[in-house]
Amino acid sequence: MLDLGLDKLALVGAVALIVIGPEKLPKVARTVGHLLGKARRYVSDVKAEVNRSMELEELNKVKNQFQTAAQEVSAGFQDVQSGLNEVQTEFNEAFSESNDWAASGPSYQHPKKNWRVKRAATPMWFKQRAGVRRHVQSGAARVARFKPR
After folding, report:
1. What is the mean pLDDT of residues 93-121?
2. Distance CA 75, CA 110 (A)
3. Which of 15-29, 39-53, 90-104 has the highest mean predicted lDDT (pLDDT)?
4. Angle, nearest 10°, between helix axes 25-104 and 6-20?
């Protein structure tokens, strides 16, 4: 920019006073001030317009990124949905086949084994000596059993 110090401005003012004259100098200074103000406003408007256009471009870029991300998410959702539908149809087919086999094949028969008896290989005399409970009682039944008479 222009490097105008106080001495240079004083020199320009003295030359303007000599060239223009003392009676026209205030009017010329006012006109120059208006023109400089208009120039500054014009420059600031141009700067603001450039900033707005740059922000608009950035917003458009962000908008496009969000749109592509949304499309990718919706495509992923479509893939998940189709996979879920495939699994559901396979499950329904397998379930219907199992129902067909159960209706036509042999039904389930309980082995009629008492699994509680074979739970441990500890002899009964040892359990009695050690005080291991063999039967489960509720709290009320235990109180009634051991209630003093």
Report:
1. 66
2. 50
3. 39-53
4. 130
CB 119 within 8 A of CB 134: no
Question: Can you give the pTM of this predicted structure?
Answer: 0.40
Domain range annotation of the chain: 7-53, 55-93
Percent of the chain with pLDDT over 90: 28
Residue 24 has pLDDT above 70, yes or no: yes
**CB-count burial class (<10 Å; 0-12, 13-18, 19+) for 20:** middle
pLDDT of residue 51: 94
Contact 64, 56 (CB under 8 A): no
Instruction: Please check whether residue 137 is in contact with residue 145, taking contact to mean a CB–CB distance below 8 angstroms.
Output: yes
Residues 52 and 45: beta-carbon distance below 8 Å: no
CB 25 within 8 A of CB 17: yes
